[in-house]
User: Which sequence fits this backbone?
């Protein structure tokens, strides 16, 4: 089995949002690669594919958000919106461009997308009209566009349609692999759900064709069609003891009738699910934030995540821009935990941004909201909580956190913090003071509170996310044994 080595240089912690990563060190074509890893889950040996630190086929299904648009500017605007939804992966739908045969426009869009999503997998997809795409063309044009995308070398994965023709499929897979690019080999039925025997046979043929991830999307006409797709997925994933596929699966039953298939992949063996921000790329896609809530709720009901080396809640505290959000999501992906962003939850509950809460109701009101939310979170177990920068300033909050878990302080220099937050707008305490000296003064005022609250302090300056995660995991594992 072919496997190439993942280049971890893109995993640096240089931005608040994990999508942005280190935009100063964008990987070149030769580094865009992946690795297959064999893991054991509940007694079943499985192979997952790791791309830019994201393990596809392990734990909670990864959320992939499609990015669509007619012109390059529109595409990049949609990409920025998608980045705010914190996706695990993104898919650029090239067929939604006004001129997808314009190689210069495709190149500019790819480079822009890579800059926005430098730390997570980028999938390039040109969907033909026969499989639900937006640009009618013949097989020759389809192949030429896909080959051009591979040659540009910005994407990590390319979607190849299994029914694009045997010669085309072989050439695209071979060329992608030679370029160090993974292949999602896909099949779409927008009119029906084929019989189970046909679906199983199709997946087997797709695996034999050397796709790295196998994708199957069908349209149900009734509930029996939905359960048939779920059954095929579980059989192919080896969850009933039968011979399983070697490759990760992506399966879905489209439309509202098949919405359960987009949520239950952790149970059936589907590794990726698609959620939208602005526009859905296929029937039945949920809004990404709702999809994440559904996945985490399903994960909790399955009783997963209890194989953690520790049983307590984990609270990340620290000044704004120290990387709490980035590290929280990296830990959540590693252990299948539920990550909770306190600021995001308050915004959701109040129905207004943090800046507006400060302006209209005052800082004290916001701090009371933090305490109320923290009390509710502390009644649960196995949570990973990214706390707002001011949470540790209240003694009451510190007591609640210590009762239900461990408190990890993330630190960074004022220069690093400024670099990470200078382009943000949701920083009310820095309004009119976006400079290093002011940040240093504010950090010094809070330093004693942070250090008093913390069980452990971890620096995030000039360190890879994986390195920070490993240090936290070592501490949590060792402290759980005491």
Assistant:
């Amino acid at each position: 089995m072919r496997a190439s080595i993942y280049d971890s240089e893109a995993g640096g912690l240089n931005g608040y949002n994990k999508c942005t990563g280190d935009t100063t060190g964008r990987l070149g074509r030769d580094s865009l690669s992946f690795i297959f890893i064999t893991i054991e889950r509940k007694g079943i040996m499985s192979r997952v594919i790791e791309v830019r630190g994201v393990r596809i086929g392990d734990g909670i299904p990864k959320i992939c958000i499609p990015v669509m648009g007619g012109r390059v500017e529109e595409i990049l605007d949609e990409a920025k919106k998608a980045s705010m939804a914190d996706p695990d992966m993104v898919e650029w739908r090239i067929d939604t461009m006004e001129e997808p045969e314009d190689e210069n426009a495709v190149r500019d869009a790819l480079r822009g997308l890579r800059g926005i999503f430098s730390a997570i997998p980028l999938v390039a997809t040109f969907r033909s009209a026969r499989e639900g795409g937006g640009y009618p063309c013949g097989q020759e044009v389809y192949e030429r566009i896909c080959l051009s995308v591979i040659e540009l070398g910005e994407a990590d994965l390319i979607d190849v349609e299994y029914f694009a023709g045997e010669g085309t499929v072989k050439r695209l897979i071979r060329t992608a692999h030679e370029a160090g690019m993974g292949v999602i080999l896909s099949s779409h039925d927008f009119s029906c759900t084929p019989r189970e025997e046909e679906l199983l046979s199709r997946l087997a043929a797709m695996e034999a064709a050397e796709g790295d991830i196998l994708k199957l999307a069908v349209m149900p006409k009734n509930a029996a069609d939905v359960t048939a797709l779920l059954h095929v997925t579980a059989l192919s994933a080896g969850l009933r003891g039968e011979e399983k596929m070697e490759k990760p699966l992506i399966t879905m039953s489209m439309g509202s009738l098949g919405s359960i298939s987009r949520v239950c992949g952790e149970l059936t063996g589907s590794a990726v699910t698609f959620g939208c921000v602005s526009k859905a790329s296929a029937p039945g896609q949920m809004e990404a934030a709702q999809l994440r809530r559904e996945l985490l709720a399903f994960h909790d009901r399955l009783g997963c995540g209890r194989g953690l080396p520790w049983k307590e809640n984990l609270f990340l505290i620290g000044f704004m821009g120290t990387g709490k959000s980035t590290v929280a999501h990296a830990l959540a992906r590693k252990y299948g935990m539920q990550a909770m962003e306190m600021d995001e939850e308050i915004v959701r509950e109040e129905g207004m941004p943090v800046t507006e809460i400060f302006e209209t109701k005052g800082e004290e009101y916001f701090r009371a909201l933090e305490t109320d939310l923290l009390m509710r979170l502390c009644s649960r177990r196995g949570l990973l909580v990214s706390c707002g920068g001011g949470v540790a300033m209240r003694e009451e909050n510190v007591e609640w956190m210590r009762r239900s878990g461990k408190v990890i302080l993330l630190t960074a220099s004022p220069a690093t913090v400024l670099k990470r937050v200078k382009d943000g707008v949701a920083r009310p305490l820095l309004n009119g003071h976006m400079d290093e000296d002011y940040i240093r003064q504010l950090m010094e005022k809070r330093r004693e509170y942070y250090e008093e609250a913390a069980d452990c302090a971890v620096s995030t300056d000039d360190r890879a996310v994986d390195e920070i995660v490993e240090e936290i995991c070592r501490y949590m594992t060792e402290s759980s044994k005491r």
In short: The longest strand covers residues 44-51.
